[in-house]
Design a protein that fits this description.
Low-confidence stretches: none
Number of helices: 6
Number of domains: 1
Structural class: mainly alpha
Number of strands: 0
Shape: globular
Distance between the termini: 45 Å
Helix content: 55-70%
Radius of gyration: 15 Å
Strand content: under 5%
Oligomer: single chain
Mean pLDDT: 87
Length: 127
């Protein structure tokens, strides 16, 4: 990441954290992980510039879109529990997708297991 890209990425990460309700400590940790990851930082910069997902980078075969779909199940569960604050916070969902991918880089098997087992869909014999 160039210095100019880092500056843009930091400004956007700071804004996302603010709108997502995250504090400075979260921002600091998130940005440190982001700048250490060539794959996720590339996706982050692409999204910043195009407001769309590139999805060239994958961890264990999973892209940011896969993580977003998985998170939607959790989002729906929040709404089912009357947590309306999540209803209009797309920034939080977007930030969490990037953050989850960064965490997934460090512990892929844990997140692969979650993505495969926490589907949020009720079907016969799920439990």
């Amino acid at each position: 990441m160039t210095d100019e890209e880092k500056g843009k990425a930091y400004a956007w990460a700071r804004a996302l954290c603010y709108y997502a309700g995250e504090d400075e400590a979260f921002l600091k940790g998130f940005f440190e992980m982001l700048t250490a990851s060539e794959g996720v930082s590339g996706e982050f910069l692409y999204y910043l510039e195009h407001q769309d997902f590139l999805c060239n980078y994958r961890v264990e075969g999973y892209s940011l879109i896969d993580i977003m779909v998985w998170q939607m199940d959790h989002f729906k569960a929040q709404l089912d529990r009357d947590r309306e604050s999540m209803k209009s916070n797309g920034d939080k969902m977007l930030l969490e997708a990037f953050h989850t991918m960064l965490l997934m880089e460090k512990d892929p098997q844990h997140y692969v297991n979650l993505l495969r087992t926490e589907t949020g869909t009720d079907y016969p014999d799920k439990y």
